[in-house]
Amino acid sequence: MKKKTYPTEVLDVTIKRITPEGYGYVKHIHPPERGSNGRGLTINVTNVVPGDVVRVTIPNAKGRRKAVVEYDELLQPGPTRNLDIPTHEAVSGGTPLQYMKYAAQLEYKMDMVKTYLQEKDFDISVVKPIIGMDEPNRYRNKMELTFGPNGELGMHQQGNFRRVIDLEDSILAPQIMVDVKHTISKWQKDYDLPGYEKTTQEGLLRNLLMRYSFATDELMIILYVTEGPGKYQAAADDLVTRLTTQFKNLVSLQWVEHASSAERIQADETFILHGRDYINDELNGFKYRIWPDTFFQANPIQAEKLVELALEMADVNEDMRVLDLFCGVGTFSLPLAKNSKDLAGIEIVENSIISARRNAEDNGLANTFFMTRDARQGLIDLKEAWGHPDLLVLDPPRSGAGGKVMRSIGRFGTDKVVYISCSPKSLADDLTWLRDFGYELITVQPVDQFPHTTHVETILLMQKVKG
Ligand SMILES: C[S@@+](CC[C@H](N)C(=O)[O-])C[C@H]1O[C@@H](n2cnc3c(N)ncnc32)[C@H](O)[C@@H]1O
């Protein structure tokens, strides 16, 4: 039977709150005088703040439960709207909170941390006020842009992975990256190089990755393309000339072939067009070499604060053995190692472990032991390979460590556990496991690692209650 469709409706709605995904939430009940079917419609609106009154167009309004829409018109700005940000088309996607005043963003993130902890019956009186940024714009040391099929180069529209919004400017990117973007867009146009079209899998240019170190001033530019420079050699040579002339601090320019249809950036073959294949960076006075695929904290100003907080909460001394679980390239490992007897790091990505070992060596730290393992297996193998830690630090991915790993940590029974998290939801779930092993929350410090996004970082200390 053919499904009935209903007319498109234009509605004026008031945004109630912002969801954890960054959408403005509205619950609309179709009024009886307009033939209500009694059902509610959840409308998720992009680029809004609470209290905004906006006009939205909803196709098949009464036939659906949920709609994700851009607003047609801002009828009245909400009290926390930052009116200095002009329109939502002129700036890039990926920043759903950018229209909210920064103080309100911080409040929103504080609430999120408290709500998730409270849901699991944790004492939220130990949650300290969130640490924000003095200057919350242009903080990222890495930006990844996508080439669209019509000459766009920018970020995907929120909730729409088919549409790329050409990046004119970005509240997240340092000016140098915005300049690189414009130079590359001009070069693309001059040589008439096609952007990659996902549906037909045709076109040349896929992604642009930029890394910039605020500490060393070194710049890396990577182009991900569907084939090697071969028949584009003249264009590639000219790109080198343009970029090295404009950016004297360009130390790495790479043309990376990624031919398969897989969306996740990958390297089939790498052609170094200029310089070397990595850049040097620094954090908390430690040196790091960063390759294109190296995970490295994206906001160095806030990352340094996180590391300082970890050192403060861990309170290590030269008699202590420390385990850094999910250690990456050693952002927390190196400063912890410097202040302790021994440090072990466990991490699943082989390249990160190779990098962590090299970083330890570059920084003259001989008391480190790094192991490539899945966290759960690593905790089992560590006992034999290295021994038992006095303190455990963990910084898992967004999905959290999970019950099995948390139970293993509980069985390790170190007095203290320092947990760094980028998802308050998975954090609260994980902590319940430690509570079952007799740990209690001592202090919780949210840190705004990613202004203008809905992400919030939290670092906390749990301690085993002595029986
Ligand atoms: C949020 S990052 C933290 C990295 C590091 N602490 C830092 O600050 O640079 C999480 C890390 O966990 C690693 N990882 C993800 N799943 C893992 C697993 N099952 N076992 C071990 N490590 C894993 C990722 O590769 C990533 O390096």
From TrEMBL:
Keyword Methyltransferase: yes
Keywords (A to Z) from UniProt: Methyltransferase, S-adenosyl-L-methionine, Transferase
Keyword match Transcription regulation: no
Pfam families xrefs: tRNA_U5-meth_tr
GO molecular function, one term: rRNA (uridine-C5-)-methyltransferase activity
Organism domain of life: Bacteria
SUPFAM superfamilies hit by this protein: S-adenosyl-L-methionine-dependent methyltransferases
PROSITE patterns: SAM_MT_RNA_M5U (PS51687), TRMA_1 (PS01230), TRMA_2 (PS01231)
Enzyme class of the recorded protein, top EC level: transferase
EC number(s) per entry: 2.1.1.190
GO biological process: rRNA base methylation
Binding residues annotated for S-adenosyl-L-methionine, in chain numbering: Q297, F326, E347, D395
Active site per database record: C422
Entry's family note: Belongs to the class I-like SAM-binding methyltransferase superfamily. RNA M5U methyltransferase family.
Protein name: 23S rRNA (Uracil(1939)-C(5))-methyltransferase RlmD
Gene name tied to this protein: rlmD
